[in-house]
Structures are given as C-alpha cells and as structure tokens.
Amino acid sequence: MNYRAFEALHAFVEGGSIAQAAMRLNRTQPQISRLLSQLEEDAGFEILTKVGRRLELTEDGQALYQRVYGLLRAQDAVHDFAEDMRHGRRDRVRIIAANHIIDGMAAEALGNCRLQNPGFSAALTARMPAELQWWLAQQQFDVALVQLPLEHPAIETELFCQSEIVAVMHPDHPYADRTQIEPKDTQAEPYISLGRRSILEQRCLASFEATNASANSELEVSFSTTAIQLAAMGCGIALAEPMAALAQRHLNIVVKKFRPVAKLHYGMVFPRGKRRSPATEIFVEELRRCADRKVVEIQKLLAGT
C-alpha cells in the first residue's frame, strides 16, 4: 500500500473533506481523490461512502484508519528519534498530555525547566484522551499527564495533584452572586456539558444522579476551555476543569464552587520498568511545584480573595 495514500486518508479524516485534505497536504483535490481510490483498490474493500453530498468513512474504513493512524504515529516517532540523535538531544523529555493540563500546568512547568536549566530539551504533545491509550501501549513517551483513574499493563501512575470541578459563568448570569452552584441549578439555567465519556462529565453526571437533578444541556463540547469560552459569552453555566478556569481568568467570567464536591485527580504516567532520565526527573519535580501553586490559586479564586 502507498504511504502517501495513508497520509491522504489521515488528512481527509482530520479535515473532513477532500478539499481540506488537499489543503493540508499542499496537493490538488484530484490528486487526493486518486490516492484514496488507489487505497481502496489496494485494500480490496470500500473505505469511503457518500452520505448525502459528503464523503464519510465506512465502518471498515474506520477500522482501517485506526491502524493507519498507528502506523503514521509510529513513523513520526522514528523520525523524531532520528532527528534528536542527529542533533545530540539524547536526554530529550517526551511529554504527552491532554489540552487542559497543558494550558493549566504543563506549559508553565516546561517553561520554568528551560529557564532554570538552559540545556533542558523536551517535546510536549497534546493528545485527546482517546489517543492516549494508543500512545501508552506504544510507550513512545517519557511521561504522560492525565486525569486518573487510568489503567494499562504497560504503565505506572503517580498522583501529583488533586482539585475539584468548578462552575463558570458570565458576571451577569443570574447565579453569579451565589457562593456555590448545585446540580439543581443546571435544571433552570442552560448547562454547557462535556462529552459523556470524559472523566469530568462522568463526575458531573454522578452528582446529578445523586441529587435527582436533570441538567438542561443545550450545548455540548469536547474541552473545558471551549465550555468556559461559551460561558464567558453568556451561553450558560459550565462545570469545568479548574486548571482550565484558572488559565482563562482573563475572560469575562466568575468562578464558583460546585457542590457536592466532585474531586479530580491528576496523575503522571510512566512506561513500566523504564529508568527515568535526569531531564525527566527535572520536569517531574517542577511540575509538582507548579501544581502545588495552582491548587493554592484555585482555592483563593473560589474563596473570592
């Protein structure tokens, strides 16, 4: 099979159309169409189907793409390793993390490591939770930053921070003067929810069920940062990840306690049995210090000080 066809399939899935795939790969639309047609011919089954006026992956196409994605990521890892060796970066820390952890803690910790240790080198990559399982299985990282619990036979986990879900809204929201937000409050006012598969949303749903509340969810998004941005526009209440709320204090928002308390646990993940490099230890220690500072800041924010 043609490696360029794999790249065309990935670009199509990421972009959602032939036109976007062509733009991403700096090719023409007919070239992308030919590559995808050749891929179908080589595979021997239908990968794409037309739904209305749009092309979409078939069920078999989705299964193929999962494997193609793994192949492309493995190719990227080989390329990155070779480049690091050429430039003498033998102690480079490979970090993967969810977006909200990058915005809330990891970027600051990474910057401090570099400023305090000029020879420090790292690669910080954002990954969706669904992608993390693949990366963990491949062990193409030195440390991953996730929300716990997370179990996998190839990893070891360490708790480095605990916090709690917060409620975020516009200063003109009817509940903005309250000291705390409860599940029942999301019945009367629009609630901006996250995907049901996210740990944060599962914690929220557990609180709703425990209090027999049914949230009035009119908007659903994938990230706390997006939910907070919508809340800042006056679109409703966002029950959000606290580090993301802290990182977006510059927006026109108020942040309130959510009760009952819904705890969040942040963990560091390491490949099982692999010795940690000195650079990895530098990052781990700085991340712990950064997390401690962030927890104090969140407590002050919720206390209104």
From TrEMBL:
Q: What keywords tag this UniProt record?
A: DNA-binding, Transcription, Transcription regulation
DNA-binding is among the record's keywords: yes
Using the record's annotation, list all stretches that form the HTH lysR-type domain: 1-58
Which molecular function GO terms apply here? DNA-binding transcription factor activity; sequence-specific DNA binding
Name its GO BP terms in alphabetical order: positive regulation of gene expression
Domain of life the protein comes from: Bacteria
Q: Which InterPro entries match?
A: LysR_HTH_N, LysR_subst-bd, WH-like_DNA-bd_sf, WH_DNA-bd_sf
Give the transmembrane ranges. Answer: none
User: What does the sequence similarity comment in the record state about its family?
Assistant: Belongs to the LysR transcriptional regulatory family.
Protein name, as recorded: HTH lysR-type domain-containing protein
